[in-house]
Amino acid sequence: MQFHKYDVVIIGAGGAGMRAAIESGQRARTAVLTKLYPTRSHTGAAQGGMCAALANVEEDNWEWHTFDTIKGGDYLVDQDAAEIMAKEAIDAVLDLEKMGLPFNRTPEGKIDQRRFGGHTRNHGEAAVRRACYAADRTGHMILQTLYQNCVKHGIEFFNEFYVLDICLTETADGPVCTGAVAYELATGEIHVFQAKSVVFATGGFGKVFKTTSNAHTLTGDGMGIVFRKGLPLEDMEFYQFHPTGLAGLGILLTEGARGEGAILRNADGERFMERYAPTIKDLAPRDIVARSMALEVLEGRGAGPNKDYVLLDCTHLGAEVLETKLPDITEFARTYLAVDPVTEPVPVYPTAHYAMGGIPTNVHGEVLRDNDHVVPGLYAAGECACVSVHGANRLGTNSLLDINVFGRRAGIAAAEYALAHEQLDLPENPAAAVEAQVALVLSEHGHERVADIRIALQATMDANASVYRTEDTLKQALHDVQALKERYARITVQDKGKRFNTDLLEAVELGFLLELAEVLVVGALARKESRGGHAREDYPTRDDTNFMRHSMYYKQGEALAADIRLDYKPVTFTRYQPMERKY
Amino acid sequence: MTASTAEQTSASGSKGSEPPVPEGAITVTVKIRRFNTEFDDEPRWDSFEIPALPSDRVLNLLHYVKWYLDGTLTFRRSCAHGICGSDAMRINGVNRLACKVLLKDLLSAGGKPTTITIEPIKGLPVHKDLLVDMEPFFEAFRAVQPYLINYSPEPTRERLQSAADRERFDDTTKCILCACCTTSCPVYWSDGSYFGPAAIVNAHRFIFDSRDEGAEERLDILSDKEGVWRCRTTFNCTDACPRGIQVTKAIQEVKRALLFKRV
Fold first, then answer.
1. What is the least distance, in Å, from the CA of B60 to any CA of chain A?
2. pTM of the predicted model, to two decimals?
């Protein structure tokens, strides 16, 4: 075992982690522990843009952005947090530009902006040009720019260090975070990092689904670690299905395509979004578009030999727009489906994309241990966190915004906390739990293959907990996940070595996926209403009387099969009263 | 909607049974260079017979081996669609991302049996199988000051940049640092102290950015003996780039900037 001591430890090196590191690293001694090399993070896969009311191309203001975010989130958004995000969005974009991000430009040389789903002028009048972008590689540019600036500031990275536990020291006032424990992939060694602040920025858990835009590595590690510590997770039933994944593959095609004018059509060639969202049509928020697409297919109007997808028609945009503003998705369609968007419509279907829920935090990124108290020294930002600025459904571009605004806030808060506080002692034997976990996976205790369990998990989640859910499908999913957890207790891995044991890594990741899938399903069963990304066929309307509240989940005990306790947290309102969502 | 059980929907029969064979699959031979520095004295070749679909990515074949045949097979991968740059490897002798090469593009003509050869990228020390030490590659990247340098006072709003000035360095902003270019370069193979194409691409990205004021410092670094003059314009790098960056052209533009002392 090796021992390290820092002021601040940041776990994860995607957009939120590196944005936090740039702030923290200039104020306090900071280490970034990351499962992947920083530039491999999935922030790089984001395409369309990052919204901010710069008003560079038409009238706009951040209050409209706040409203759109709250309405887009089906009123489950904490309104104070949404206001902060929309207000700070402007500086967040300008900061990135000053760091070197190569945004597309207007003829006057300003940052160009384009339309995106759910972003409107004057509270829903019409779509507004608010998304700042760099072709369809905005996430790539953000990830590269943040990494470049980490290099500039000499941020210390521990690459391919897989964090498996955090250290909580009990005090009279409750638990305080005092460090993190990591498994070094190159050597199999365990490292204890003592720190005054720990920031989780570990991203999402899209790999609970089969059809997903998420990377193989997005297994919810940070959320899983927090949950196993007895700390709550929030709003996990709200999972976003992005409307335009490449059919059958799930690879993301940006909403920016529709922002540039692309149209969704069913097998009859009909522009069906006119029926579901008469005002902004194809630029309705993702939950509405995904549901509409699923309905078209369910009602027999799907395209293709199996009538199981719809078509994204970009043909009228012209080769130049596709090559200059949407080059990557044009290439994805050509490479993976052998379809040329210049001349043919592209087969698309909703793909599991983004977790609205996660580790509950306040607007400073401090992690909550219940509705009223934080865990001193523990922070979270980005997709793994739930502030909640996305409520029941995140608007397109607001994730890139979230990582920049709340990554920055968490980095500053973590460093300031570290500078103002003494280091507490670590709990006894801080590495013991991780050592035991690794030893257990490597020991011979069964014959179950990790891949079989993961594939079965993804299949049941796709079939039973996807865009539309019912009591029956969710009960089936719960039954399946619980049975898979039992099988997980008997897994075996072939690789028993210490050097880059990715067999072991996949086994550990699967444990987190099973844990989080169960929370998602338990939450979806309990929420007997339809709101945002959570659509219940058997409860098709929003029920503000009973469910205008955040869900909070607590693990009851240590075992993988331990019960989940469900509690609730009030939504924060400022000035926007819930209304029916029409677009 | 009706509920579907895990058993019905599972692609495999699971419980450690035979691995799944997708409908319409053909059998291909995948020959992989193996070397685990923890246990092995020298590298070897392992061959696997795999059922696969023409639409499968090479990454799918590697996953099939790892998940069903040999869990010790080790490689990096993440996004699986050519954006993260994790899975650069030598596929049938050329550097490619395993997630961007489809089986149908590798099939032998006339229905003959197909063998796909997969090796780690060259010029970087192998840690295990297809996974190499990326540190020397990132060291070269960091050495060229790959970040915007600007000494002027910051404006309150964005710095202005014309669309034409933005276009000037567009090609080199696409780099995902996968190392396909650098590890396809014969000069890099013979002399690891050469910065290599990827580092020069990332220097180019800033040298030709109208907002940047660090061109002189970077050009000084690149005119060093490990710098651009090592390039012999073999175009391997341009052929290897999965992002379609004109790598050799970018290197030539840096050379020209050095010769004529202007950007």
1. 12
2. 0.97
